[in-house]
Amino acid sequence: MIAKRIIPCLDVKNGSVVKGVNFKSLRQLGDPVDLAKFYSENGADELVFLDISATNEGRRTMIDVVKKTAEQVFVPFTVGGGVRTIDDVTELLRAGADKIGINSAAVANPQLIKDASDRFGSQCVVVAIDAKRFPDGTWHVMTHGGNKNTGLNAIEWAKDVERLGAGEILLTSVDYDGVKDGFDIPLTKTIVDSVNIPIIASGGCGKPHHFLDVFAETNVSAGLAASIFHDGVCTIQEVKEICKENGVNIRDVRVF
Fold first, then answer.
1. Model's pTM, two decimal places?
2. Where are the alpha helices (H) located in 43-192, listed in sequence order?
3. Pick the catalytic residue: 45, 130, 177, 184?
4. DSSP helix/strand/coil, 98
């Protein structure tokens, strides 16, 4: 059985790690390079770096920060935000990223998923899906930092990105983001059961047991969180110990 992964997320705006609620009310938390290094040395299985304002500001991801971060981490490192072309993908991989996250650009140009997968391999391509539940019970794909409703059905879009060659989906619940009441289990389970590629659950984690809940109730491959680690609620090691004590196959913590 493949071990479940614990992944800290670094949302970056204007050179600082930030965190908000429902993608809004952002507060600054620190330097992304320092935080990435800390998590890499204290048990993170992977890291996700998201330049959350790049798309809305119409600019590319901050390559210099990516380079500095990549030099400091020793675990797989995904970078997203502002990725619009195959040249952007190429530059980020050359800067040190192991995987590239694509969200708004994938919706605007699905061919980008296939082109990136064909050139670099599906293992390098992570499609980020930000999903919001609507009154009719369906989940819609949101882009531009959760602000724009694409009208796309999230389940069907997940199937499409798998078909196009994505190697993994980073699934974030816009409704649960930053709320700290736990992962969106119904959304996560629905998407996991609809595709055959790994899913990273994101949005809503506020306690160590929330990781245990999502691993127990869905076949998700990884859990991603920000506030719980940034605010010192618990360490990655504490999360892993709780998961192991409850029978979850989890990687041992590696502390340098």
1. 0.91
2. 63-72, 86-95, 104-108, 111-120, 154-164, 185-192
3. 130
4. coil
CA distances (Å), 20 to each of 34, 120, 174, in order? Answer: 20, 33, 11
The tokens 């391509």 sit on which residue?
125
Q: How far apart are CA 59 and CA 172, in angstroms?
A: 22
Q: For residue 22, give the amino acid letter.
A: N
Residue type, 218: T
In angstroms, the CA 93 to CA 77 distance is 10
Q: What is the 3-state secondary structure (H, E, C) of 26-56?
A: EEEEECHHHHHHHHHHECCCCEEEEECCCCC
The β-bridge relationship of strands 125-133 and 99-102 is parallel
Q: Model confidence over 119-161: pLDDT tens digits?
A: 999 999 999 999 999 999 999 999 877 889 999 999 999 999 9
3-state DSSP helix/strand/coil percent for the chain, to nearest 5? Answer: 35, 30, 35
Which contacts of 149-155 are long-range, i.e. CB under 8 A and separated by 24 or more positions?
Answer: 150/107, 152/107, 154/129, 154/187, 154/191, 155/190, 155/191, 155/194
What is the rounded distance in angstroms from the CA atom of residue 11 to the CA atom of residue 50? 5
11 annotated active-site: yes
Per the DSSP assignment, residues forming a β-bridge with 21 are: 24
Cα 144 versus chain centre, distance = 15
CB 23 within 8 A of CB 9: no
Q: Copy the structure tokens of residue 104.
A: 């708004």
pLDDT digits (tens, 9 = 90+) for 49-58: 888 665 545 5
